[in-house]
Amino acid sequence: MKDKYDVTKYDRPSVTVDVLLFTVEAGELKILLVKRNETPFEDSWALPGGFVRMDESLDEAANRELSEETGVKNLYLEQLYTFGNPKRDPRTRVITVTYMALVSNTEWKFKSTGDAKEAKFFAVDKLPKLAFDHTEISKYGVQRLRNKLGYTNIVLGLLPGSFTLTDLQKVYEIILKTSLDKRNFRKKILSTGLIVASGKKLEGIAHRPAMLYCFKNKKVVITD
Amino acid sequence: MKDKYDVTKYDRPSVTVDVLLFTVEAGELKILLVKRNETPFEDSWALPGGFVRMDESLDEAANRELSEETGVKNLYLEQLYTFGNPKRDPRTRVITVTYMALVSNTEWKFKSTGDAKEAKFFAVDKLPKLAFDHTEISKYGVQRLRNKLGYTNIVLGLLPGSFTLTDLQKVYEIILKTSLDKRNFRKKILSTGLIVASGKKLEGIAHRPAMLYCFKNKKVVITD
DNA sequence: GGCGTAAGTGTATAATGGACACATGAAGGA
DNA sequence: TCCTTCATGTGTCCATTATACACTTACGCC
């Protein structure tokens, strides 16, 4: 494998990373899109991303692009899939390694201030027409996220530090597009031992205050 | 995202595909390795693979490399992960998109004749020292294969056209490194409806002949 | 025809998943 | 202060699924 003697003699494709940044807001699962101001697809919405530099790993590139374009840093990033259709970029051969990341509504609102480029969250089932094959990439990522809900605690990235069980349940329901039984949901979630009651309760609401919970540790793990 | 005006002005990494070709033979899960006869890692064993051409997709590249180096064509190929550590190739920046494929023992024996390059199957837990980060890639692939056994019929690629339920069970046991209960295994497998009795039986053996089964269709599907 | 060998089969128990309804605690207004 | 409003919080029964476990059957061979 590899070549004989000199790898530089081969034509080389360009390599980019593109990031699906998920959040849940206003009862919808959303992803971040940025407005392109260059050809091709000028003025189209696209996933945040860009070229991989020669001295950085793919994970580093994804982290860098995400923080450059959004100001959000050190999120949990997971490699999704690599798309390499020769015609996916009309200019030249571009292979893109895609990642997904999750951010809580509250955290995003804070960190997004001061970003120059136009960037906006869109509900995943009301996406505008996207540049390149980004529509396909988005669908793939949403599907992956749905699957992962079933056997990991990946959802922790979408929630703030403390939250009620009802909040948590809503996030599941929004992503899975189903409604869940409250008692069964709580039983199952608590039986994993991954979240613990903080002891504090919601205050200032006109009904019984809910217990606030938090994740025991902030690492994504497989739960079964 | 992307660049301004001219993508060709950026340094570009080389991109390869590497393929983990699994088989089960002599009671062990094995992968195909080829002997390198170029630097770096001359005389080391490595995964079959090579550079992605400018006019082919990643899937096509994986298929091509696999058939060039082994003579086996049109196997089920699944993209695994993309490895892009800047130092993984000592020559220059090389990003590799990895795939896994499965071939049955019997099919391989037929098609492998006439291959020039030295190629050999090695048990996955007795691998020699491999070139580049191929040891890590192999581990990742084995793990993925194990996981997929649980919720897909991916194993069909490892078996010939017809097989006994005992054969099938052995393949599961070898890959998962556990022993399974015969009755429970048969119940579960048959309840998926994905395999059917062919009506024929093994002949010429000194004990009760086993029914031969085959997969109803040859597509990999999710079973739950 | 008796032996060796792997095939083939059922049941009882435990664990899991899903359906389902009512009392509780706080705020706010009468 | 008492009554209303509203989301919280909790337990049981049933169905399904997973697991443990042992003997009879069919064939070749000697």
Radius of gyration of chain A: 20 Å
Low-confidence runs of at least 5 consecutive residues of chain A: 1-5
CATH superfamily of the largest domain in chain A: Nucleoside Triphosphate Pyrophosphohydrolase
The arrangement of helices and strands of chain A along the chain is: EEEEHEEHEHHHEE
As for the CATH topology of the largest domain in chain A, it is Nucleoside Triphosphate Pyrophosphohydrolase
Oligomer: homodimer
Q: Quickly count the helices of chain A.
A: 5
Name the chain pair whose interface involves the most residues.
A-B, 48 and 48 residues
How many structural domains of chain A? 2
* Main CATH class of the largest domain in chain A: Alpha Beta
Sum this structure up briefly.
Chains A, B: InterPro entries: Nudix_hydrolase, NUDIX_hydrolase-like_dom_sf, NUDIX_hydrolase_CS, NUDIX_hydrolase_dom, WH-like_DNA-bd_sf, WH_DNA-bd_sf, WHD_NrtR. 2 copies of one chain form a homodimer. Chain A has 5 helices and 9 strands.
